[in-house]
Each structure stands twice: as C-alpha cells, then as structure tokens.
From TrEMBL:
Enzyme class, spelled out: oxidoreductase
InterPro entries: ICDH/IPMDH (IPR050501), IsoCit/isopropylmalate_DH_CS (IPR019818), IsoPropMal-DH-like_dom (IPR024084), TTC_DH (IPR011829)
Keyword ATP-binding: no
PROSITE patterns in the cross-refs: IDH_IMDH
The organism's taxonomic lineage, starting at the top: Bacteria, Pseudomonadati, Pseudomonadota, Betaproteobacteria, Burkholderiales
Protein name as annotated: D-malate dehydrogenase (decarboxylating)
C-alpha cells in the first residue's frame, strides 16, 4: 500500500470549506483505488490563528511541513488583517521557502459550464507562472512616510538562473501537449532590462526545443488574444505578476474563479509542492455552504498526478466532468447546488466508475 503524507491548510474564508470537500473526495478515491492511502494532518494556521498568536507559521513550522509529500492549501486573506500581511505571512513563505518556482495553472471550459465567450470552447491553456522572484521578490521600500516627498519603490528582481529554469520548465511541459506551442509573455517594450532579459533567455532555451512552436506577445496584447482568439493559444509562460493576472482572466473566461486549480511545484522535489485553488477567501460567500469545490477537486487531481497516482487523478477528472456536465452547479456557475451536493455527487461517481 502506497502512503502519501498530506499537510492540509484550509486557512481563511471558504478555504477550510473547500479543503474539507477536497479531503472527502480524496478519501473516496483512495477507497476506490485500493492501492494507496492518504495520511492527512491538518494545520490550523490562518488569520484567526495569527490574531491569537502573532504569527501565521509558528517557529519550526516549515521544518514540519518538509516531512510531507504535498501541501493541500485553501486560501489566505481576512478582513481583519491587511492582505499583504496575510499573503507574506502564510502563502509566500511556503511557496518561496520551498522553492516552488513553477506555478502551473490550467484553464479549460469543463463540460456543462458556460464560458462568457462565444468561442470559449477554444480555451485549453496552461499558464506557467514564475513563482519565486520577479515583481513578488519582496524588494522595495518606503521613505518619508506621510510627507509630500514620500517615495515607495517596488523593484522586480529577475535572475538568469530563475528565468532560465522557468523557461525550461515551460518548454518541457509544452512538449508534452499535443499542440506543442509556447507563447512568451512579457512587457519588453516599456520595461527594458529584466523583461528584455526574459525575452533573450527564452530564445536561448528555445534552441534546445526545435520541435516546439513559439511566439511572443506583450502582456497587454495577450489579453485581447485570450478573449478574441482563444484557440490560438496553448501554453503561456509569464512573470509572477503578469501570470497572476492572466490566470484570473483565464479562470473567468472558462466559467468561474470557482473552478480554476493551481500547482506550486518544486520540480526537483527537494521540498514538498503545494496545491491550491487559485481563488481567495471569498468573504461574500463564506459560511454559506455554496463555495464551488470544483477548483479544489481539480487541484486535488493535480496533486495526485504529482504523487504518482495517475489513475486516481484521471478518475477524479472524469468524475468532476460528469458532475459539471450533469448541470449540478453552485451559484457562481448559475446553479443552486451546495458545496456538499457537488461533493456528494463527485464521490458517488468515483464509487461507481
Ligand atoms: P476571491 O477569489 O476571494 O473572490 C472573488 C470573487 O469570486 C468573489 O465574488 C467570490 O465569491 C468568488 N469566488 C471565489 N472563489 C469561489 C468559489 N470557490 N466558489 C464560488 N465563488 C467564488 O478574491 P478577492 O475577493 O479579491 O479576495 C478575497 C481575499 O482572498 C483577500 O484577502 C485576498 O487577499 C485573498 N486571496 C487569497 C488568495 C490565495 O490564498 N491564494 C488568492 C486570491 C485572493
Ligand atoms: Mn492571484
């Protein structure tokens, strides 16, 4: 029997609700498969925990997380804590501390889900986000606070090693897709240094992948292409900030933020990788039992894939698609189903197929 050790961190808002649903589905899969089991430990780190203890991650917390095969993460962000404090308190220390530099964000219109685009069926993308440096390197400062001469800087940092490894990761992933197409997204007209370096390193790496079709777009221009000609894109590689924005757009174009998954990968597997829905805490629907768990289920499928459970990962995707196709939708997709309804239906499909 294969055992996978999972650290579950639901954290804030709807995070614990969707992680609970995700763990239920993972249990059903393990029972159906019979070849593996999940050993789950839940961590209470959240904004409430921060308000009570003064920190999100206690001393030695990252060392404890290191013992796990994967981290299953909900969402962090609270109305009681400034967003930059919660993000830098919990999610970024894990992603950066474990060098999860490749953030993989697939987007596709699931069966039965309506895209706001007429040609939404053309959406079948993977956005690769550089997840360790760039605009979120944490490099900046403020001087002369409150005075008329106040200055704030937010300096993006790009390193050759950091850029080259994300490009290589993107090329490798694109090679595994049927269309073998990779689009480089930067802003190297207005930004002349780090962005031009991104472009140059991309074309250096491209020499090693002659079978792959490449093209490039500026980040503003690619938004129009995503909306008007979605079928012309396949894999996209972009910086931390740019891909963050593009993937929320991709989620909305594929039907809802409530279905979009993401994997924060440490491809060398020196450290655990982290799997999470891309949405946040969703204060407006917290506690109502109507959060869409599909993003978390799809995320769980990516986690299973990473853990070497390809059969269970595929079974879960089939169950998700059967349930979305059946029209059992939460309110974000125009339906009236609850988180629990969708979870039960996915578990039932897993048991029977
Ligand atoms: P959000 O994703 O929480 O919500 C945006 C909108 O999408 C809301 O109307 C919400 O109800 C809806 N939505 C999101 N997930 C849904 C789901 N599963 N089912 C149905 N509807 C869903 O984004 P926001 O409002 O910008 O941020 C709220 C908080 O979450 C902030 O504190 C923010 O910092 C945090 N946040 C955290 C993460 C993360 O942990 N990775 C990501 C984004 C935002
Ligand atoms: Mn985001």
């Amino acid at each position: 029997m294969r055992t996978h050790k999972i650290a579950a961190i639901g954290a804030d808002g709807i995070g614990p609700e969707v992680i609970r649903a995700g763990l239920t589905v993972l249990e059903a899969l393990a029972a159906r498969d019979g070849g593996f089991r999940m050993e789950v430990e839940s961590f209470p780190w959240s904004s409430d925990y921060y308000l009570a203890h003064g920190h999100y991650i206690p001393e030695g917390g990252l060392e404890r997380l290191k013992q796990f095969d994967a981290i299953f993460f909900g969402a962090v962000g609270s109305q009681q804590v400034p967003d930059h404090v919660s993000l830098w308190g919990l999610r970024l220390p894990i992603a950066q501390g474990f060098d999860q530099y490749a953030n993989v964000r697939p987007a596709r219109v699931l069966p039965g889900v309506k895209s706001p685009l007429q040609n939404g069926a053309g959406i079948d993308w993977v956005i690769i986000r550089e997840n360790s440096e760039g605009e979120y390197a944490g490099n900046g400062g403020r001087a002369h606070r409150g005075l008329p001469i106040e200055v704030g800087t937010e300096v993006a940092v790009f390193t050759r090693a950091g850029v080259e490894r994300i490009h290589r990761f993107a090329f490798e992933l694109a090679m595994k897709r049927p269309r073998r197409q990779l689009t480089l997204v930067t802003k190297s007209n207005a930004q002349r240094f780090g962005m031009v370096m991104w472009d140059e390193i991309f074309y250096e790496v491209a020499k090693d992948y002659p079978a792959l079709k490449t093209d490039r777009e500026l980040v503003d221009a690619v938004t129009t292409r995503m909306v008007l000609k979605p079928q012309t894109l396949d894999v996209i590689v972009a910086t931390n900030l740019h891909a963050d924005i593009l993937s929320d757009l991709a989620a909305a174009l594929s039907g809802s933020l409530g279905i979009a998954p993401t994997a924060n990968l440490n491809p060398e597997r020196q450290f655990p990788s982290m799997f999470e829905p891309i949405h946040g805490s969703a204060f407006d629907i917290t506690g109502k039992g109507i959060a869409n768990p599909v993003a978390t289920f799809w995320t769980a499928s990516m986690m299973l894939e990473h853990l070497g459970e390809a059969d269970a990962a595929a079974r879960l995707m089939r169950a998700i698609e059967a349930v979305t196709a059946s029209g059992l939708h939460t309110p974000d997709l125009g339906g009236t189903a609850t988180t629990e309804d969708v979870t039960r239906a996915v578990c039932e499909h897993i048991r029977q197929h």
